[in-house]
C-alpha cells in the first residue's frame, strides 16, 4: 500500500514562493505607476501553467543575467499576485478581493491558459456576484464576450438581462453596448420588452454609434439625407429583428414613420400595408416576444418567474396571459421578523396570495398559490381546485421549475387554516408555529409533489426568507 503525504508536500512547495532565494524568473506586470516585479521558479511555472510551458518556443521571454524575464503590462499586480498564489499553493480566497479584480482574474486566467482557475472564477461570478454583474452589465458583457471559453457567463448575463431588462436598456451605458451583444439580445424571443421600447432603445443606440450623429446631432428634423443613410447602415442588421406587427397604430405613426428612410423598402412597404389595410406581412413574420404582465418587488424571484407563476394561475402560457397582475408584498420575514402573529396580522383577509420560501442551505425557492387567502380560523380544511405548489432551482431558473396542483380527488383538503400556524398547503408544504417549514407527500397534491419538494421531501428547516404577496389583476 502506497503512503501519501500530500499535505506536507503542498505546504513545503507553497513556502518557497516567499522564502526561496533561487528564483530564476522575473515577471514584470502592470503599467504606468501601477507596476511590480515578481520572482518565481521556471520549473513550477511550467508545471502549473501551460502559458509558461510554451513561452520559450513562442518568443515570449528575454534572458538577462541568467534569468528569464516576462513582461505582462495587461495584468495588474493585484491580479498577478492572485495568479501566483493559485499556481504555488492551489488555494485562492476570492472573497478577499474587489469584484473588479475577480473579473480581471477571469481575463488573466484565460490568457495564461489556466483552465481550472478560469472555470472556477466564471462559476464564482455567477453564483456569488449576481448583484454586482447586474449593476455592471455593460462592463461585464464587453469583457466576457471577448473570451471564447466564457459561454456559460455570456448566456447567464443575457438571460439575467431578460429577466428584468428595463433597468439595463434605459441605463446611460446602454448606448455604448457592443453591436454583437446587442444583436444577440434583440433577436431573443424571451427579451420581454414592449416593441415600442425596443425600437426607442435601438434608435438611441444607433444614433450614439453612428459617425456624424450622437448627442450633438440627435434631432432628426435637422438631419441630412446622408445622416439618415449613415444611421441606416448602422442599423441594417437589426431592422429585421424588430417585431413590427406588435406596434399600435399610434406607435407606427409616431415611431416608425419618421424613420422610414432607415428601413429597407420591402420591409417598410409591408409595414405600411399592414397598418393601412390589415394585410398580413410575408417578410416580418417573427413571433411576438414574451411580455411581462406581472409587477413585483421580490428579493427571491425576478419578474420572469413571477410571469411564469401568473401563467400557472391562468393555466396558460406566458404569451397568452389575459390579465396584468400586481404582486404586492404583505409580509417579508427579513424585515417583519419570522413571527406567526406578525404573519397573520399582515396576511389575514387579504384575498388570494402567493407564498415564496428560500431554503437556508441552497438556492432553491419553494412556493404555493393560495386562491382563497388566509383567515383567522382555529382549524379548518378549505376547498379549492386552483391551488398549487411549485419550486425553482434559483431566482433565475426558467428551465427546471416544477409545479404540483391539488389532487382532483382531494380538493377539500387543498388548504388548511389554523391561526396559530402559518401557511399550509394540504399538509404537504406548511409553516408551523415552531417556525419550521415542513415538506410531506400527504396525497392531497398530485404526484409531481415529489419533484417539487426534492431534495427535501419529508424534511423540515428554518427558512432563510419568506415572502407573501397579495395578488391583484386588471
From TrEMBL:
List GO terms (cellular component aspect). Answer: cytoplasm
The record's listing under PROSITE patterns reads: BTB, TLDC
Q: Which residues form the TLDc domain?
A: 299-472
BTB domain span: 23-96
Pfam families tied to this protein: BTB (PF00651), TLD (PF07534)
Under which name does UniProt file this protein?
BTB domain-containing protein
- Signal sequence region: none
Which taxonomic lineage does the organism of this UniProt entry have? Eukaryota, Fungi, Fungi incertae sedis, Mucoromycota, Glomeromycotina
Note the PANTHER family from the entry.
Answer: BTB/POZ DOMAIN-CONTAINING PROTEIN 9, BTB_POZ DOMAIN-CONTAINING PROTEIN 9
Amino acid at each position: 500500500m502506497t503512503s501519501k503525504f500530500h499535505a506536507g508536500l503542498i505546504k513545503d512547495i507553497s513556502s518557497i514562493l516567499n522564502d526561496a532565494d533561487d528564483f530564476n524568473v522575473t515577471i514584470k506586470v502592470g503599467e504606468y505607476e501601477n507596476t511590480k516585479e515578481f520572482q518565481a521558479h521556471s520549473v513550477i511555472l511550467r508545471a502549473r501553467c501551460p502559458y509558461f510551458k510554451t513561452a520559450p518556443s513562442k518568443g515570449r521571454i528575454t534572458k538577462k543575467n541568467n534569468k528569464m524575464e516576462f513582461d505582462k503590462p495587461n495584468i495588474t499586480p493585484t491580479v498577478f499576485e492572485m495568479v501566483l498564489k493559485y499556481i504555488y499553493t492551489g488555494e485562492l480566497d476570492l472573497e478577499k478581493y474587489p469584484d473588479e479584480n475577480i473579473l480581471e482574474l477571469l481575463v488573466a486566467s484565460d490568457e495564461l491558459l489556466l483552465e481550472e482557475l478560469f472555470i472556477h472564477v466564471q462559476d464564482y461570478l455567477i453564483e456569488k456576484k449576481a448583484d454586482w454583474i447586474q449593476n455592471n452589465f455593460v462592463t461585464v458583457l464587453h469583457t466576457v464576450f471577448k473570451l471564447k471559453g466564457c459561454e456559460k457567463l455570456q448566456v447567464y448575463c443575457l438571460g439575467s438581462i431578460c429577466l428584468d431588462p428595463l433597468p439595463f436598456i434605459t441605463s446611460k451605458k446602454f448606448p455604448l453596448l457592443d453591436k454583437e451583444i446587442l444583436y444577440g439580445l434583440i433577436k431573443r424571443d424571451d427579451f420581454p420588452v414592449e416593441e415600442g421600447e425596443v425600437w426607442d432603445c435601438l434608435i438611441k443606440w444607433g444614433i450614439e454609434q453612428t459617425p456624424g450623429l450622437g448627442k450633438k446631432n440627435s434631432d432628426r428634423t435637422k438631419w441630412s439625407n446622408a445622416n439618415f443613410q449613415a444611421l441606416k447602415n448602422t442599423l441594417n442588421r437589426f431592422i429585421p429583428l424588430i417585431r413590427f406587427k406588435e406596434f399600435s397604430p399610434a406607435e407606427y405613426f409616431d415611431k416608425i414613420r419618421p424613420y422610414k428612410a432607415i428601413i429597407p423598402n420591402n420591409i417598410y412597404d409591408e409595414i405600411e400595408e399592414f397598418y393601412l389595410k390589415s394585410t398580413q406581412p410575408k417578410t416580418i413574420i417573427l413571433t411576438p416576444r414574451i411580455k411581462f404582465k406581472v409587477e413585483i418587488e421580490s428579493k427571491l424571484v425576478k419578474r420572469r418567474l413571477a410571469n411564469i407563476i401568473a401563467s400557472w394561475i391562468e393555466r396558460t402560457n406566458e404569451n397568452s396571459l389575459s390579465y396584468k397582475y400586481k404582486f404586492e408584498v404583505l409580509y417579508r420575514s427579513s424585515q417583519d421578523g419570522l413571527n406567526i402573529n406578525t404573519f397573520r396580522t399582515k396576511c389575514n383577509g387579504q384575498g388570494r396570495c402567493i407564498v415564496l420560501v428560500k431554503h437556508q442551505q441552497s438556492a432553491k425557492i419553494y412556493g404555493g398559490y393560495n386562491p382563497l387567502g388566509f383567515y383567522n380560523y382555529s382549524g379548518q380544511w378549505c376547498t379549492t381546485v386552483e391551488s398549487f405548489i411549485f419550486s425553482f432551482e434559483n431566482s433565475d431558473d426558467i428551465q427546471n421549475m416544477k409545479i404540483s396542483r391539488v389532487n382532483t380527488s382531494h380538493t377539500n383538503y387543498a388548504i388548511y387554516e389554523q391561526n396559530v400556524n402559518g401557511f399550509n398547503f394540504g399538509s404537504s408544504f406548511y409553516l408551523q408555529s415552531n417556525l419550521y417549514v415542513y415538506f410531506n407527500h400527504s396525497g392531497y397534491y398530485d404526484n409531481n409533489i415529489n419533484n417539487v419538494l426534492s431534495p427535501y421531501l419529508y424534511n423540515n428547516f428554518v427558512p432563510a426568507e419568506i415572502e407573501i404577496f397579495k395578488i391583484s389583476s386588471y
